Amino acid sequence: MSANIFSFDLNVSLGALEIGIVLGVFLFGIETLQTFNYYKRFPKDSNLLKGAVGVVWLLELGHTISTLHALYLQTVTFYGQPIHILSPPLSEEIPILLSGLIYTIVQTFFANRVRVLSGQWYTMALACVLGFFRFVGDVWIAALLLIYVRVTVLLEWRWLVTTSLSLDLSTDILITASLCSCLWNMRSCESKRIRSMLDTLILWAIESTILTSASSVIQIILFMTRTDLIWAGVYVVQSKLFSNAMLASLNGRQRLRECTTANMSDIHFGSTHPSRKADAVAISFEDARSLRSLDVERK
């Protein structure tokens, strides 16, 4: 299928891209606030985790600047020259690479959470393999745009774009299903409050992946059924959904710990430090392993 500038509705193509970029800036502001709160509340997290949060924020900063620059070029510098809609500037290709890196870091974070919680490597290994191929696909797409300098080349490589988006969706579902399965298996404990807390964690896991998975599905449908760029409006927002999901998960530990501390007084762990057990339910790189052994004293 081919497409040219005369088959493009600029109100749809450029309008969707502009709305997506503006929404992305708004989400970046939320991410910045979440990042500030994270460093303020969790100074004792591992350097690896704090470094990952910082890298994700820097990548999102570059992503936001690049998309705003592309929007300025197409709506101001090249005003009245619609041909440039099909010949994207370099600043439209950079976000593709940055998005790929963000997806890789965030999905590795959640996959590692499953590994620590379950004590098994295979889910994380499979997620990393899928994430690697997704990143390769993003690099390939960026290279095609750089070489051919026209968006319509993606219509000739539909399988590549849809495969990349499908890998993203598959990784999301794999990680969420594995995490929910681990938490559900732990509901065998006798305490109703612990089961309620685990139900909350399961709900959080599902909520954290709904928007990212939905955005992938929407992109696939729009890309396969239309020849315009409306799908790109969703694409420029997706990385912000990933990074905000990661930060919301990390910052949510404080509320969960407070709730857990209040509910631990009637639960016997064989320890005189129930507050330490509260930390066990705050799943992260350091303490997810403790949640797997709620009835064992944390040394």
TrEMBL record:
InterPro entries: DUF6534. It holds the Pfam family DUF6534. The keyword Transmembrane applies. It comes from the Eukaryota. Keywords: Membrane, Transmembrane, Transmembrane helix. Residues 170-255 form the DUF6534 domain. The chain crosses the membrane at residues 12-30, 51-74, 94-112, 124-149, 169-186, 198-223. PANTHER family: CHROMOSOME 1, WHOLE GENOME SHOTGUN SEQUENCE, DUF6534 DOMAIN-CONTAINING PROTEIN. This is Saposin B-type domain-containing protein. It comes from Mycena venus.
